[in-house]
Amino acid sequence: MISKEQIIKRFTSYVTIDTESDPNSGTTPSTKKQWDLANKLAQELKAIGLQNVSIDNNAYIMATLPSNVEHDVPTIGFISHFDTSPDFTGANVKPQIIENYNGKDIVLNEEENIILSPDYFDDLLQYKGQTLITTDGTTLLGADDKAGICEIVSAMEYLIKNPEIKHGKIRVGFTPDEEIGRGAHKFDVEKFGADWAYTMDGSQIGELEYENFNAAGAIVTIKGKIVHPGYAKGKMINSMHIATEFINSLPRLETPEHTSGYQGFFHLHDMEGNVEETKLHYIIRDHDKKHFEARKEMMVKLTNELNTQYGNEVIFTDIKDQYFNMREKIEPVMHIVDVAEEAMKQLDIKPLIKAIRGGTDGSQLSYMGLPCPNIFAGGHNFHGRYEYVPVESMIKAIEVICKIAELTANKYK
User: Fold this and answer.
1) Is there a catalytic annotation at residue 286?
2) Angle between helices 4-15 and 391-411 (to 10 degrees)
């Protein structure tokens, strides 16, 4: 049996280490504090009995569980990231353990009246009677993706202690900086040496994903001219007014708060400005490649139109692709999704196969030659104070890892 107490202990030991990444840093990892958990993980992998444990100069960790069968079996991998999102602080995380959740409001922080309520987060009601790990309302939790790390480490430990479960060679990998889009940038696919892998980086129990957004980032820079406002007629160009026109010219309902499923969006996530210069920071997302390209073209066309209206070299738009939909790389090898789906069914987990409204290391790794669908890690409400994870979901994720390994070995007898 997998020990609930051991899972809680391992997970909380991870989340209490601050590993927030920094998009403004040029180093890998982007923050020195990520090394604190990276070094701990490398030592822990050795301690539980994995082989070929390595940690490189960029904090990428790899290790091997050798095959315990004589026949040839494809090498499979399991991957998670140890950084947490810069969207919300990950410093001084104080996890709270809620035993036998009763389906009612959870007071995260009485002093600040911060409440995790099923009236707002109705997914909570799926977990009545279970053990939840929450924040104290002042930080994120870090289940994204320290739950995935906990599950992979625990699964490897379980397979080592239960050699009657037959499996081929398994590789595990832990990465920095996934939350700022760089988790796979320096991942050595050839060194990893797996035929395929799975990221344990999904949300609720049952999630199995092999589609994700095509993604780009855009910085729109608007140049203005400042003169004394009392004598500004015909002379001043207020960059903020032009920025407002740019914002309002994009489809108003094609934003994150108005879209779901396969619908794409433009997301203005940051802006700063004054009369002389305003910068708009957008992310562009769409599952459909043609629609994705059309969105980028729309921003370029709008830039050109406003330059024609206000004079050339007033608006500059710099668009850079970030990652692409891994469906294109997974569909030719759908058996790797099928084995994960079968593992869930054998464990009485209902597979929830859907598209990710985001990206994972797996999307980039798939384009680097390592097909890599995504499996649930159990957490909810990532990147904020209302994040939580049911321990029972983490245990199920551990069982799924072990079952995938077992089914793969049996399939290739």
Assistant:
1) no
2) 110
